[in-house]
Specification:
172 residues; Dipeptide-binding Protein, domain 3; 3-stranded parallel sheet
């Protein structure tokens, strides 16, 4: 099916050509994708290595065809989901702008009712599957390292911890 679609594009004079922008640590992944797709005709994949110092500018200007990035899922999905997927968000690096998903994301962000939030997230999930603006290819578990006498560690927001909730047990 992929080859047929690529052949259709080529017949219309639009062979697929894109660049993967990868961090130095992800260059091998980019080259693996490039190698896998090289088995198909009418597609050209280039790999560009970007320095971490360039990332903010590249993302802000949307100066990429395809780029690796992260959507952090830990604890409450908000505000991360809204930030990463809403059409009005500066953090929506996929560029997706879908009225149904935007409305569902806003509903979930504003509601404190678990049933309403669950219903809204079902819409978001369905739209992500239908539109496929992002390929989730790995799962990370962001965390924190602390000694055994530190407590009160709880992630919120974009993966940060609340310093005012940290405590240290000095009874040792």
């Amino acid at each position: 099916e992929a080859q047929r679609l690529l052949d259709e594009l080529a017949a219309e004079g639009k062979p697929l050509n894109f660049t993967l922008s990868m961090y130095p640590s992800g260059r091998a992944l980019g080259e693996a994708i490039q190698t896998q797709l090289s088995t198909l005709n009418n597609i050209t994949v280039n790999v560009r290595t970007i320095d971490f110092a360039q990332v903010g500018q590249i993302l802000g200007q949307m100066d990429y065809d395809v780029i690796t990035n992260a959507v952090v899922f830990a604890g409450d999905p908000e505000p991360r989901l809204w930030f990463g997927l809403h059409g009005d968000s500066a953090g929506n690096y996929s560029g997706i702008k879908d009225p149904q998903m935007d409305a569902a994301l806003s509903r979930a962000l504003a509601s404190r009712d678990e049933g309403e939030r669950e219903s809204a997230y079902e819409v978001v999930q369905r739209r992500l599957v239908e539109l496929n603006p992002i390929i989730f290819y790995t799962r990370s578990a962001p965390g924190f390292v602390a000694s055994g006498n530190v407590g009160g560690i709880r992630q919120y927001g974009m993966g940060s911890i609340l310093p005012e909730e940290l405590w240290i047990n000095n009874t040792d």
